[in-house]
Amino acid sequence: MSDNIFEKVSTLLNEINLSNPGTDEDLETFRIRFLGTKNIIKPLFAEMKNVPNEQKKEFGLKLNQLKQAAEAKYSSCQSALNSGTTTSKGTSIDLSVPPGPLNIGARHPVSLVLNHMIDVFSRIGFTVAEDREIEDDWHNFTAMNTPEHHPARDMQDTFYLEGSDSMLLRTHTSSVQARVMTTQKPPIRIIAPGRVFRNETISARSHCQFHQVEGLFVDKGVSFADMKQTLLYFAREMYGAKTDIRLRPSYFPFTEPSAEMDVWLGTETDITRRLTKGTGWLEVLGCGMVDPNVLENCGIDSEVYSGYAFGIGIERSAMQKYDISDIRLLFENDNRFLGQFTSAF
Ligand code: PHE
Q1: Is the minimum distance from the CB of 172 to ligand 1 under 6 angstroms?
Q2: Cβ of 227: how many Cβ atoms within 10 Å?
Q3: From the CA of 66, how far away is ligand 1's center (Å)?
Q4: Pairing with 160, which of 119, 233, 243, 295 sits 20 to 30 Å away (CA)?
Q5: Is the peptide bond before 257 cis (omega within 30 degrees of 0)?
Q6: pLDDT of residue 209
Q7: Over residues 131-160, mean pLDDT
Q8: Most ligand 1 atoms within 8 A of CB, residue of 169, 247, 252 to mutate
Q9: Shared domain check, 312 and 246
Q10: CA–CA distance, 231 with 248 (Å, rounded to integer)
Q11: Do 40 and 143 belong together in one domain?
Q12: 241: nearest Cα among 258, 268, 264, 261
């Protein structure tokens, strides 16, 4: 009698070990048979009274083994099903089949131009400094020699944070000049790429957000000639080895003297004529010698140090490079537009 029961237990253990429920239904059948309220193992415990005393312990161990094997099989098959290595039809997925084409996307044209500029400047020793887009009034305006009520603030109207009259969305990356100069000692040689904001009507040519790359070089004996040579190098790397530049006198509160730099694109094609309004010259950046007031505001001795700074608009360069006619396309995240751009940068 007891031999019979031992045999039954090992037959069931075999069955559990060999079974491989690969679908939800198979697994449920398995559960009902071995783990459900009326499972097949339960009545075997009642057989304990028929087992001779000296075999009772062994029998008990075997029954527990049986139960544990059923539980282990159930949970391993359940996780296999959930992790998807078997399908609901029970067929295994062939993991050796090569995957279909991956859509890895493309870089945004603004990133392409930005990365190119970073590459060009890092080759001559500029490092990248990034800082916040939500700025305080001091770093964006006051430190940059544009105190409250200064008329130059009108040109850079922006968005103020609700409940605060000093926190705003930065109007230019020049705020990073103040961030860097108040925390680092000269020599300082940085570029600061990033997004800026202005309260402007959105049209094909202007937007309330755009990108700039700021440049700042502060050291002993830095001259206007140093700036001009750096900017000529930049223009030739970006627009071709034969590109010429011209500096037109201009005004910024934080530089003195100030200039606007144009690059020569020529008037040969429709695109260059349109972009340069028929003049052949494209305006690409504002620049100048850092105003001594700005150095002093940031705790740098203007008797000892001098520097130059420049701010380059990214969107216009991207639009010129990729012949994009409407700036709004750059902010709409339309994949049909964005999918067209690929480059090593
Ligand atoms: N911050 C200026 C602007 O946004 C550009 C600039 C930067 C000019 C640095 C001079 C020096 O228009």
Answers
A1: yes
A2: 23
A3: 79
A4: 295
A5: yes
A6: 95
A7: 92
A8: 252
A9: yes
A10: 13
A11: no
A12: 264
Q: Is residue 92 part of a domain?
A: no
Measured from the CB, is residue 309 less than 6 Å from ligand 1?
yes
Q: What is the pTM of this model?
A: 0.71
Quote the pLDDT of residue 344: 47
* Distance in Å, CA 287 to ligand 1 centroid: 6
In a domain? residue 95: no
Structurally, the chain folds into a number of domains equal to 2
Atom nearest to 285 CA in ligand 1:
5
**Is the beta carbon of 174 within 6 A of some atom in ligand 1?**
yes
What are the structure tokens assigned to 86, written together?
């078997």
Are 206 and 200 in contact, with CB atoms under 8 Å apart?
Answer: yes
Q: Which residues of 72-87 are buried (b: 16+ CB within 10 A; e: fewer)?
A: ebbeebeebbeeeebe
Same domain, 256 and 148: yes
Is residue 258 domain-shared with residue 140, that is, in the same domain? Answer: yes
Per the prediction, the chain carries an average pLDDT of 90
Task: Write the CATH number for 161.
Answer: 3.30.930.10
> In this structure, which residue's CA is closest to atom 4 in ligand 1?
172
CB of 223 within 8 A of CB of 309?
Answer: no
Q: Are 143 and 294 in contact (CB under 8 A)?
A: yes
Give Cα 53 distance to the centre of its chain: 72
- Residue 247 CB less than 6 A away from ligand 1: no
CB 188 within 8 A of CB 216: yes
Residues spanned by the domain of 204? 109-338
pLDDT in tens, 187-227: 999 999 999 999 999 988 889 999 999 999 999 999 999 99
Atom of ligand 1 nearest to the CA of 258: 10
Q: Are residues 248 and 315 in the same domain?
A: yes
Question: SS3 of 261, please?
Answer: strand
Question: 245 - beta bridge partners?
Answer: 263
Read off the pLDDT of each residue in 259-283 and give the average, rounded to a whole number: 88
